[in-house]
């Protein structure tokens, strides 16, 4: 699994490095949600909210996700998407947070 270089982290997460290590090792957390930047070939990027337990499925073992944010609870994840959308609008004049993050990802490669 890949993580965004400047990973967005909910302020309610006390030790983001430990949570990140746990996600890589396959340890689950009851309240951890991740923001994943997904893109199928030929399609627009899409920002998805998912519970960290979904990362344990065979699909994500074969197709590692690109995680841009870690949130403590679903409500924190929703607020993080709202914040990212505002940031995308401020920086680009467009409301498309997924395209904004995909552009930042390409710039960092």
Summarize the structure.
The protein is of the alpha+beta class and 109 residues long.
Written overview of the protein:
- Helix content is 42%, strand content 26%.
- With 109 residues, the chain is of the alpha+beta class.
- The protein has one domain.
- A hairpin with a 7-residue loop joins strand 2 and strand 3.
- Helix 3 (74-92) packs across helix 4 (97-108).
- It is globular, with a radius of gyration of 13 Å.
Quantity of strands, as a count: 4
Based on CA atoms alone, the radius of gyration comes out at 13 Å
Question: What's the arrangement of strands in the largest beta sheet?
Answer: 1-4-2-3
Give unreliable regions as ranges: none
- Helix content range: 40-55%
Q: Total number of helical segments?
A: 4
Largest sheet: 4 strands, mixed
Question: What overall geometry do the principal axes of the alpha carbons give?
Answer: globular
């Amino acid at each position: 699994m890949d993580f965004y270089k400047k990973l967005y982290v909910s302020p309610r997460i006390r030790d983001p490095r430990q949570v990140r290590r746990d996600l890589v090792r396959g340890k689950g957390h009851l309240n951890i949600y991740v923001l994943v930047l997904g893109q199928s070939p030929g399609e627009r990027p899409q920002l998805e909210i998912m519970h960290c337990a979904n990362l344990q499925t065979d699909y994500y073992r074969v197709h590692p996700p690109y995680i841009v944010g870690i949130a403590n609870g679903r409500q924190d994840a929703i607020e993080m998407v709202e914040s990212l959308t505002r940031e995308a609008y401020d920086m680009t004049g467009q409301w498309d947070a997924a395209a904004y993050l995909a552009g930042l990802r390409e710039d960092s490669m």
